[in-house]
Amino acid sequence: MRLPWRVLAPHTAPVRRASSVPAGLMNFVPACSTTDAHSLELLQDFVTRARRLFVITGAGLSTESGIPDYRSEGVGLYARTDRRPMQYAEFVRSAKSRQRYWARNFVGWPQFSSHWPNSAHKALQRWEERGKLHWLVTQNVDALHSKAGQKRLTELHGCAHRVTCLGCGAISAREELQRRFIALNPEWQAQAGTVAPDGDVFLEDEQVLHFRVPSCDDCGGILKPEVTFFGDSVNKATVQFVHERLAESDAVLVMGSSLQVYSGYRFLLAARDREMPVAILNIGPTRADHLAELKVSGRCGEVLSVIQPL
User: Fold this and answer.
1) Is pLDDT above 90 for 19?
2) Which of 57, 199, 262, 273 is the least crowded, having the fewest Cβ atoms under 10 Å away?
């Protein structure tokens, strides 16, 4: 059954709370006023009504851990630079592109892999423990939900902490590959530039000329992060699995995602077809605003600090 549409009262005074984001990490979180009390009340009611909640999270959750995103106004990668992420076809086709990608990833890995879950990740893990959260689908590749202890989890776009061989399909740990990079490039150094969302940094082409990239230990094939690059598609079995978890749920909550990428948006279309109630918590507009019965603007960590899994 669909919940009735709720109109947010614009005149309601905001509730003043301490920021969930440490001052040093605010650079990647878009400007946003404190969520008002009426919106929080409506979101609490939405969560309370749900018995098997299906949650979709995006990069807006991880910006509060200091990981930049692509699309946030003023602070996302697209706003800060004209650089664009690696395309799947380019990675597969060009050894030079792979060299550039892995050199940048090698430099950025120590910082990217050191990020930790924030209060929003921890809250969702508690929702799972309490039986409120039936399944969580994240579009992020940073492993922060796993680090928080989330079990009922699908990493829709893969995980940057794993590496796959395009030849034999072998899976290995990204940390292991870092050790191989160090062994192959003992004298190589590069001055890091701007940090990118998926764990790499910006380097000039001449900086990566002598960087050596290992092949698969098992078959000599091409190594690639086990993530869905732009221009690639999500594994069909994964999509089907997520649709099955959605069918078992009774409400959908989107957090920290503009849903501009179809791979996540498709599940909102499926929720509409099933007449499931949908709520969205995000800073800024999303592709699915017209499908939501409740839209709340706010930082995920701050909002979840007051929403209880009743």
Assistant:
1) no
2) 273
